[in-house]
Amino acid sequence: MPKANTEQRKLAAIMFTDMVGYSALSQRNEKLAQELLEEHRALLRPLFPKFNGTEIKTIGDAFLVEFHSALEAAQCGIEIQRALAHRNHDVSPERLVELKIGIHIGDVVHRGGDVYGDGVNIASRIEPLAGAGGICVSMDVERQIRNALEARFEKLAPTELKNISVAMDLFRIVLPWEEAKAEGKWQKEQFNADTRRGVPPSGAGVLKLVAVAAVVLLAVGLGWWLVHQSGLKTKSIASSSTNASSSSTLPSAAPATDQKSIAVLPFVNMSADKADEYLSDGISEELITALSKITGLQVKARTSSFAFKGKNEDIQKIGEQLHVSHLLEGSVAKAGNKLRITAQLIKISDGNHLWSDTYDREMQDIFAVRSEVAQQVAATLKIRLLGEDRQRLDQKPTENLEAYNLYRQGRYYYEKFTEDGYKKAIGFFQQTIEKDPRFALAYAGVADNFVLAADLLIAPREAFSKAKDAALKAIELDDTLAEAHASLGMVHYHYDWDWAAAEKEFQRALALNPQSAQSHSLYSEYLVGMGRFDEAYDQGRRALEIDPLSPMANWYLGWAFLFAGRSDQAIQQLSKAVELDLNAGWVRSFLGRSYLIKGMQQRGIEELEIARRVAPNNPFALGYLGYGYAVADRRSDALKALQSLDVMEKQQYVSRMARVYIYAGLGDKDKAFEWLEKAYQERSDALAWFRLDPEAKNLRSDPRFATLMRKIGFTEP
Description:
CATH topology of the largest domain: Serine Threonine Protein Phosphatase 5, Tetratricopeptide repeat
Structural class: alpha+beta
């Protein structure tokens, strides 16, 4: 921002937002009005930087935000209205938060920390014309974004704006959940305020919603249009906060299906050699990645799609579980250097095959096939590919086929999320780099691998140092790799204790790939660690929208509830994760911790004991169990857990933090702080969240706790 005594003139896109009915609500119920005002600010502020927006100031219940481009401003406006639609769909009428948004691009002057000029004045005059839940843009904005934004525009009557000499042509962006009405395929219906479902009201007068099409009415009854957009190493965070904002509750109903949404089922390995399964899985993942790059197409993440691997499920059932309108399935056969890939696109509502094709190619043509299939899917679904989309689809990660095969094998073992898988994966990733030192994805794989293993299988100093070097190398080779930025964010968060740098990398990852469930989950973890629970819930829900059948996505959201002190919701969410993977030791551990916090000690210990059985080499699982024994007055069992850690340490690496939990449960503060200091010297990643850990509650009042927290960058305990 320019200094107070300087001026800077430039072209910028300006957004004004305004809460509908805030003044009237303040007069009726000042406390509620203030609560909703702060909630809306907490919801909007994280969205601005995702689109390179800079908050200039707030004016009561309004925001003034500057963007580099009209497109980024419009995309941010749509994301704001989408987030509010999601937030409003399950709240009572008096708690609705509706915004009007105006956007203009023009000359502005920066002076004294503020912004002036026609660009600002016109944007402020446009905003009231947007209507509740709407976005109004000037003709200058519409011209710049109409060919780049997947949206329709409605032209308003020429409008004379206050203190603006010439009548202006203005446009209203037709939001995705309104598009069906514009296409004439849907019918309107009076909203019943007691029925809380679907997209929320967008007007201040008579409330209306969009009803589903007649075909869907016959098949599944009345539903509502909702648009959604957008294991890893599990880290524990805790908090005594009991924030129960309405924006943080889980949706009460499953989201309706977007008509331009797809899941890629695992392609079947038809090769004679069953070891070639890595290739069929890899092609499926390549297609998921490629389709995710198409603007306007919602793609489900790998974990959810691969939940159906080897199963003969009915396609309607798959569609219902994944909330998608289309499936892409196929097979891969490899013979020497020859490939035969078949692919077919299926419409779930009627089971019709919309398109199918067979590709007989050489192995080196695998990326061309990926691009062709993705483009054919877009064409069949009538999605117009932008030039940028085509460029991303055609981009090859490497020209070295042998390196690509090694990389795909590394990812195959990495996705198993086992100790053996990590060890095999790192070997393949390192071989990949030897074959092609400029293969950026391979370095990202190395970074992911070491982040997952840090403080669990490998000492954090060693693991995070290697992860950081690999992530930085990947970014150096390809700055557009979302995976590398997410891994670097994890390093900054868990190891460097550089909170600002970590958030910057997470936001960069999501800007590059808004459909990355992994990045949303990791950002959620970070936000919980910072105590920003409402934002964490939102990121956790976004991850679940993209990856609904992922145990880890469910786990991350359950984690957020747990450490906000919302044990009932934590138990509900973590139980869903357990249903998806009965042998997920980390999930069992956190479910057990949730029961302990709720006061259900016996049930908590039962879950912690299961976690210990399914993950016998996980020192944290043993540490949590020892804590459970201690708080349940089973002191001898807690001491045995400490002895077991001593035995374990002779066979493998054991995090210094594992013993801290047991000593905290036993009330032995001196021993707890002794091991906390060792964890600090080791730079244990668990310290990044221990400040808020529920097991740390008996240590927080000790002056040594505040001293330790300051050493890792927290000014307040």
